[in-house]
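Below is a filled-in request sheet from our internal design queue. Each sheet records the structural input a requester submitted and the sequence that came back. We keep these sheets so that new team members can see what a complete request looks like end to end.

REQUESTER: design group, bay 2
PRIORITY: normal
MODE: inverse folding
CHAIN LENGTH: 149
BACKBONE (tokenized):
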């Protein structure tokens, strides 16, 4: 009887990828894939709160040996723009309203409300972006759309 397919993917000396070190977050699905299990960001950073994605990724780098340093805070507004040649580009806000799956996707009407708020309160033109195959039609009302298709 042939070996079941799932047995062929158990971590052995060659592993799934064939890499000597396979690092991944211990709380992710299929932790048996990894032979270096990275703890949660809160544990690495010594905090008891939700962490930003940047902190989550930086904590993994720190755990794997990168020098610890301050993780810069996000800035809503950029500094003064340098003089440029060509047509003037009005101020804009870039929104990426799609995610890998429905459970990670914020409802479209909330993105539209945020876009409206940015436009009315800060005079920022909303620009919705997406990847190939992303349906941005729900965000077309008064906004610019850009897809990597």
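RETURNED SEQUENCE:
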């Amino acid at each position: 009887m042939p070996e079941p397919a799932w047995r062929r993917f158990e971590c052995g000396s060659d592993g799934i990828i064939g890499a000597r070190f396979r690092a991944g977050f211990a709380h992710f699905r299929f932790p048996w894939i990894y032979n270096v299990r990275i703890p949660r960001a809160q544990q690495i950073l010594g905090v008891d709160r939700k962490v930003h994605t940047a902190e989550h990724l930086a904590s993994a780098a720190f755990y794997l040996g990168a020098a610890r340093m301050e993780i810069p805070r996000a800035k809503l507004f950029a500094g003064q723009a340098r003089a440029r040649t060509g047509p003037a580009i009005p101020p804009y806000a870039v929104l990426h309203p799609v995610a890998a799956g429905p459970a990670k996707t914020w409802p479209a009407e909330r993105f539209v409300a945020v876009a409206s708020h940015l436009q009315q309160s800060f005079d920022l033109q909303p620009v919705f972006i997406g990847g190939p195959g992303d349906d941005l039609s729900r965000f077309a009302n008064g906004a610019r759309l850009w897809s990597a298709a």
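SHEET NOTES:
- The radius of gyration is 22 Å.
- Strands lie at 23-25, 36-38, 92-95, 125-130, 144-147.
FILED BY: M.R.
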